[in-house]
Structure formats: C-alpha cells, structure tokens
C-alpha cells in the first residue's frame, strides 16, 4: 500500500473535525468540553504552573528552549492516561532528538502528580492546574467534572498552535507516530516516523 502523506491543510481540517466532535454534545462520548479555547494558528495561551518537583514552569520560558508538545490528561487514576504517558516517556528520546519539550497538564495536585511520576518513572514534567484556569483557557475542561479532556497541542517556538487533538472518548489517543509526524511537519523536517509502505496511523486505542 502506498504511503499516504496528508498535507498540512488536510491535517488542519482533520484537527478541526475532531474538535467539533469532542464538543458537539454527543452523550455517548461523555467527553464534552466547556467550550472556548484557541484554534490552530492562534497564539497558545500563556501559563505558569507548578510542576511535580515543586518548581513553577512557564510556557514562555520553555518555548525559548524549543517547540512544545503539550499533553492534557484526565488524572493519575485513568488507566488510559497512564498508558499514554508511559508510552511517551519510553519514547522521550524521539521528542528530544527533535529538540521538543514534552509537558503534561492535569487538575491533579503536585503531590498526586509527583506520585504518578514516581510510579511510571517519568522523565518529563507533570504540571498541576487544580483551578482549571489553564485547562479552561485551552478549551479542554470537561463539562461534567473538574478534569481535563485528554488532548495534545503542538506549539512551535513562534507560540502559535500548529496542531491540536481532542480525544473523542477516554481510550482515544493519537498514535505516537502520528504525533511525531506532525511534529516533524511543524519543524519543516522530513518525517522519519513513517517508512515507505507503512499505513498512516491516525489513532490508537488504549
């Protein structure tokens, strides 16, 4: 099967469709957001959040070091979120090789985040947003509970959102290879995450 490499315009349209589905109020998905939040090509909302290590991390400071892959996850109790964080951690070298910084945000307390990082041996920051201020600013707050809807934003050093993904269901996540493909595209690099003849892996279920 020939490799399908969608253009960035197609990817942007795909991301827009996913956002619509996640916020459309479909009761079967149970992942309605409270609305709002930036769209692709808009500036990413600035934030300063407490990390599990006790220090504060700001988006502005991190973007000065490289592009950011910003992951929103529901909580440390979610097996789906734990599996995704673990997969990203096991492949952290792929992000670092591209000069990207991985950050993950939830409404969990710093103490809870610290325990999760210890349990999974995570080597990237988990940021706490118990007030949901940042989560809401990104349009990722769940309507029926004080938690984030799982999703990912890729933010180049320009600060403009290049791509966003909002999960349609708790086990729905973009595949690691898809995220790396988009990251390569954002950096203007030829993607090494897919080989000729491979099926383009949009999503995976945890």
Distance between the termini: 26 Å
Taken from the alpha-carbon principal axes, the silhouette is globular
Per DSSP, the total helix count is: 7
Order of helices and strands: HEEHEHHEHEHEEEHE
Q: Count all strands and give the number.
A: 9
pLDDT average, as an integer?
Answer: 82
Which sequence of strands runs across the widest sheet? 2-1-5-4-3-6-7
Helix content class? 25-40%
Report the C-alpha radius of gyration, rounded. Answer: 16 Å
Strand content: 15-25%
Major sheet description: 7 strands, mixed
Structure classification: alpha+beta
Q: Which stretches of 5+ consecutive residues score pLDDT under 50?
A: 1-30, 195-200
Strand-helix topology:
Blueprint: H1 8-23, E1 48-51, E2 56-58, H2 59-63, E3 68-72, H3 79-90, H4 92-97, E4 101-106, H5 110-120, E5 126-128, H6 133-137, E6 151-155, E7 163-166, E8 172-174, H7 176-186, E9 203-205
Parallel strand pairs: 3-4, 4-5
Antiparallel strand pairs: 1-2, 1-5, 3-6, 6-7, 8-9
What attributes characterize this protein structure?
single chain; 7-stranded mixed beta sheet; disordered N terminus
How would you describe this protein?
This protein is α+β, with helices and mostly antiparallel strands and 206 residues long. It has helices at residues 8-23, 59-63, 79-90, 92-97, 110-120, 133-137, 176-186; strands at 48-51, 56-58, 68-72, 101-106, 126-128, 151-155, 163-166, 172-174, 203-205. Strand 4, helix 5 and strand 5 form a beta-alpha-beta unit. The two termini are 26 Å apart.
């Amino acid at each position: 099967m020939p490799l399908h490499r969608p253009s960035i315009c197609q990817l942007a349209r795909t991301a827009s469709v996913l956002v619509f589905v996640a916020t459309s109020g479909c009761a079967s998905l149970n992942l309605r957001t409270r609305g709002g939040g930036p769209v692709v090509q808009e500036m990413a909302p600035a934030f300063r959040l407490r990390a599990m290590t006790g220090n504060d991390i700001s988006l502005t400071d991190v973007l000065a070091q490289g592009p950011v892959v910003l992951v929103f996850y529901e909580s440390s109790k979610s097996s789906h979120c734990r599996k995704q964080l673990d997969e990203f951690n096991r492949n952290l070298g792929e992000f670092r090789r591209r000069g990207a910084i991985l950050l993950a945000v939830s409404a969990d307390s710093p103490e809870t985040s610290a325990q999760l990082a210890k349990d999974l041996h995570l080597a990237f920051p988990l940021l706490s947003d118990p007030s949901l201020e940042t989560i809401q600013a990104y349009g990722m707050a769940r309507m029926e509970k004080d938690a984030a809807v799982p999703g990912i934003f890729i933010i180049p050093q320009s600060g403009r959102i290049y791509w966003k993904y909002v999960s349609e269901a708790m086990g729905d996540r973009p595949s690691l290879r898809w995220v790396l493909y988009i990251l390569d595209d954002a950096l203007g690099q030829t993607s090494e995450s897919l080989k000729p003849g491979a099926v383009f892996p949009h999503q995976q279920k945890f």
